[in-house]
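#onboarding

Welcome to the new folks! Below is a worked example of what a typical request in this channel looks like: someone posts a single protein sequence, and someone else replies with the predicted structure as tokens. Don't worry about understanding the tokens yet, we'll cover that in week two.

Example request:
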Amino acid sequence: MARSAIHCALVCLAFFLPADSVSLRSTISFLRSLRFHQTLRVCNAYPSSAPLGVYKDGVQLTSEPLPYKACADFDELVEAGDAMDFKAEDVDVGTFTVTELPRANAVLLMVIRRHDDETTAAAFDSHVFTESDGSQVAVIDAYKGPAQADVRIQEEMGAMNVSEQLRFGSVVVVDPGLYKVSLNKKGNATGNTIVAAATLPAPAPTELVAESHQFYVILRCGLQGRDGADYSEELVVFPRSDAQDFANPKKSWFTALFGWFKTL
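Example response:
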């Protein structure tokens, strides 16, 4: 009787053991798909009194429309082939189609602006920020009109009062620190020449607080349209970091990183 009970216990135990333990182990893998963290950064440099709604494949990303001269970051998953639509009060303004994405952690910059100073057609600038030493700064000219200018950067607490030019359509690397960026007005374009104006009021300098391993965009915004539309020329910096992080002055420098942008 005792022997029968022991036999039953062994049979019951065998019922809960896998018939093929090797086959079961082969279905368990320690491999995982490689995933990247990519942030979509959208900037509205399209002069208009109406803010723009941002949509991805028909789904609105913004809880509120994005005002002119504003930027926003989205953690929304973006894939090649996605269509990014921009609308002003349900009126289509422009569409950007994503063609390819890097296989790396990145910030995907997308800027909507006017195509020209005669029509309301939209155009886009885009850039992919990937990780590197220092802070990366993209410089984009979204202004449309006859005014000619370039952008200058200067250390806010530097020992030498020296400024250097930031070329439009480029990306530079700067050391963490405090900087001032300003527009250097040159004159107005007339045909193929630049006519210097007697008085060219320049916008006040804008502060750039560069943190380590952060990505920034400097936008030259504004419009002097041939139809009479007029939006003042100015610089926009995004994101705006806290200047309190740099209480102590530090010698800084910047070097050119890229010299190209993807423009549509």
